[in-house]
Amino acid sequence: MTARQFFAPLGVLVCLLAAGCGSTAPIASSQAPASAAAASSAATGSAAANALYEAAKKEGEVVVNNQDPDRDKLAVDTFTKRYPGIKVTWQVGRGADISSKLITQAQANMYTHDVYASGPHDADAMRQAGMFAPYQSPELSAVRPDFLDPNKTLMPLYVLVYGLTVNTNQVPAGQEPKSYKDLLDPKWKGKIAMQDPRGSGGTMTALIGISKESSLGMDYLQKLAGQDMFIGRETLQLMTDLIRGEHAAMLGASAGNLVAERDKNPSAPFKQIKPTEGMVFTLNWMGLVKNAPHPNAAKLWNDWRLSQEGQEILAKEGLAPVRSGVKVERDEINTDGVKILYLDTGQDADRLPEYTKLWDTTFFKK
Question: What global pTM score does this model have?
Fold first, then answer.
């Protein structure tokens, strides 16, 4: 066997960061009290925006799915101060679980959801089921053109960014890998970890990108598999192990993972590496659900999430914004000028079973 393995059974899929695990019970956010300042702020804007807000206030609520409501507390607090009178209610759960629930409900003519947000593969499942209404926010004019949906059904929300991560105690300054190819050096044998790529997840996306890159490709991945890699079940556990010094380098941790770890422990000995071949990007999408019970509040929420303020909040939460000109304080999530190795928009969603078999024979062969 070419890899030291600790992995989930093949049927267990690893959640995309944007569609993490959780229950599917709805919970209501705490709504900030209305204030004169918030009302005044909400009243500044175009007549169309003000009319949309007034219509949304009559609906009084927007229902959105979320895998980690705690992370988005700042977003909800800011939105409800900006637009008093509108409550944000989360449907908590994995993107796949929520999409399955909504599709089943629609078959029974039940519609309880307003905005669906997820990674590209779950969003594609919703699209294929005809679950989205055709809404394109006016804020899209400020979004990077390469992040726009050519079908004009979905709207980009944020980007997950994947590169390499090293333990700075194990890897002295100046000796970090500068490219993916550097990991083939014999000195890295037995020192590299990655999340199980089978099914879905950040490492699945990273390997797809690497396999498509002409300077790397499957020949590179076959050689990488010979580096006696440690393959683990969960990215966060692997990050913990990396920080402890059990691994020197890791594939599959997102920039958001790194920001979260740095917030927990500012002195933790790890560093993001941006390989010379480029970074792997995964677009996370949002869309207006067909027959939404609160369509105006849904449009207002989508518009705000893509606004300058909404995207700045996402950056503070450790997610890479899709809007141009947003100030980003963390270098890990700064995508300006970053070479893109592979941009996952969901174009390979139908091929995930094929890639799962490919990674199985490449990294788990006996």
Answer: 0.82
CB atoms within 10 A of CB 302: 26
Q: Which residue has the tokens 């594939």?
A: 251
**pLDDT score of 202 more than 70:** yes
DSSP class of residue 333? G
Query: Cα separations (Å) of 20 from 14, 64, 94, 200, 236?
Result: 9, 15, 5, 12, 12
Q: For 169, which DSSP code? A: T
Name the CA dihedral angle for 335, 337, 342, 347, rounded to a multiple of 10 degrees: 70
Query: What are the chain's domains?
Result: 4-13+160-281+339-363 (3.40.190.10), 17-157+285-327 (3.40.190.10)
For strand 279-288 and strand 115-118, is the pairing parallel, antiparallel, or unpaired? antiparallel
Give Cβ neighbours of residue 322 (< 8 Å, ≥ 6 apart): 143, 144, 147, 156, 157, 158, 159, 283, 306, 311
| H or E stretch at 295 | helix 295-306
Tens digits of per-residue pLDDT, 119-159? Answer: 998 999 999 999 999 999 999 999 999 999 999 999 999 99
Q: Pick left, alpha or beta for residue 7 (phi over 0 → left; psi -120 to 50 → alpha; otherwise beta).
A: beta
Q: CA-CA distance, 247 to 166, in Å (whole number)?
A: 8
**Which residue, chain included where needed, has tokens 């989930």?**
8
